[in-house]
Amino acid sequence: MERTRWEVHKIKIFFKPDVCIMKLARIIPRKWGTFGGYRYAHNVSTKNSETTPHEAESSIDSVVPKTAPKVGIQEPAPSLKQGSFAKRIFVGDFDTGLLTYPEVLDKERHETLHDMLKPIEDFFEAKVDSRKIDADAKISPALLEGLKELGLFGLQIPQEYGGLGLNATEFARVGELISDGSVAVTLAAHQSIGLKGLLLYGTEEQKQKYLPKLATGETIAAFCLTEPSSGSDAGSVQTRARLSPDGKHWLLTGSKLWISNGGIADFFTVFARTADDNVTDRSTKRITAFAVERGFGGVSNGKPEDKHGIRGSNTTEVFFDNTPVPVENVIGQVGDGFKVAVNILNSGRFSMGSSCAGAMKKMMEYISDHVINRKQFGKPLKDFGLIQEKLARMTIDTYVMESMAYLTAGMLDSGLYEDCAVEAAMVKVMSSEMVWRGVSEAMQIYGGMGYMKEQPFDVALRDVRILQIFEGTNEILRLFIALMGVQSAGKQLKDLVKKLRNPFMYPSVAISKAFQRTRHTRDAPSLNLNLKSFLHPTLTKEADLLEYSVLRLQYAVEIVLERHGSKIIDQQLDLQRFANVAIDIYAMTAVLSRASRSYCIGIRNAESEITIAAAFCQEAHRRVRQNIEELVDGPNCDEYVSDLAKKVVENKGYFCEHPLTRTFW
Q1: Active-site annotation holder among 305, 441, 471, 609
Q2: Whole-number mean pLDDT of the chain?
Q3: 543 with 618: CB under 8 angstroms?
Q4: Structure pTM?
């Protein structure tokens, strides 16, 4: 049964007495329930006051199945799922439940996880030599066997199929310790995408047949989607699957490019076009996912690719030549392959945050002795302001990556959120760019010494660069984040936008909205979401910065939809700005939620977490303010971008004359 509990935030006494009494008197109503054996906190979402009750109800209807009870109206049952937090902020709908940082592990699971981590950490310290893996361009059989013995090939496979059955939070924590890029990619290609289709869509028969050997690593999996002609456009795959004359097999023909584990895998999740042979209309050709064994025949692979980074991971082209696949090996339904592929990719991105944070922690440990012991101009590097700035930047970025990753993992584990794809994409974009910057800054701290191959920066830089490219390029993911948010907002704002785009037909609506937007035109929205009530009082200023950002995003969405309507889909620079704002809002939410929790329960160094949260929120607020200003004010320099890009294409390169060129003497 759900129960209401009043939670008093404990604070440290450093306020003036009268203010302190007021702060101590602040109590926050929280409703507590359980899901999957865990306690979770949830709050009725906060809408700003400009939204009518009807709009709020429509907002809920758009993300909750029609048959499900509505949040805030009835007690939530374990089956109730909320819509995407990230999509909702585009209409100013902020789920304050996320300001309570998730607590998904009970004492027993926490202790079990702790016991599991030490052997993994010791193994990577003693057995994994990243420089050797990079030089050899392969992971040795002995190292692979060690990974199998640790159970790392079956982390998220349920225990009934021989795996460890880790939830998302536990999986993310283990991912922090997998310190080598090539090993991390090999394991991720196996379980985050290679076999994930079976976990998400597989039949019981398919799971019983394949998962036990996949869990032990006896069979290694690969994910076969990318083709020479289809990169980011996953819907354009050309590999074909046709039914055999007896109707018992699908015959696969085609090739897949840049397949991680392609040369060592015996199980492949393959995506191919299926069609009725009697129908020639291209629009009826659909994509289907298949579980393919190398032993089916007709499966071969090319030689390992010579890559810039993650050189030890096995990346090859994979070929299918009339490969017979039993009809019962379709994953999901015939024609659902695109959905299967997208959901597989979406489900695994969140863990990149914890993996990148783990890499950054290792990097910071490595450089700490250098900044302490290395002296220049008579004093150690640690005393120079510019070095301190780099150390602080790396600390803040690592904290942000961790906070976003574990907040998202907690959302997945709680079972309360039916859609975390946008949040997972945000984690991937933010963490991949932060870890790239962090490794580069670490190298910079070492100066010329850092450019030597004997230092770890060479391998690390090349390994982390791929993170901005695979599992969806960051450009594609930014478009995905923005379009998901704007399209969701568009459905709710459809009638309003129509009226605002036709002010002469609906003058009262236009005039009313103009008055409502008065404060926004001065960049001073009315902060009526009261987010500070859900955080420790020391974070009041930062809570207001978060609230400002949410309300300004809502305002910008209305303005841009009013300006472009459905053509917003073609305004990629504006979509990028929307994505950047939304990512910053989600990051601020994660950081504030975590810092508040740490301070309230007395975590060691909690005061520093408050400092980190304050620093990041101020930076994020400045970025949000700039992006919103550019969205609201109009085209900015976007037309120049388009014109210059066209000139580059027309001239097939840089087109300006050399500065020494003269037209006269």
Answers
A1: 471
A2: 86
A3: no
A4: 0.85
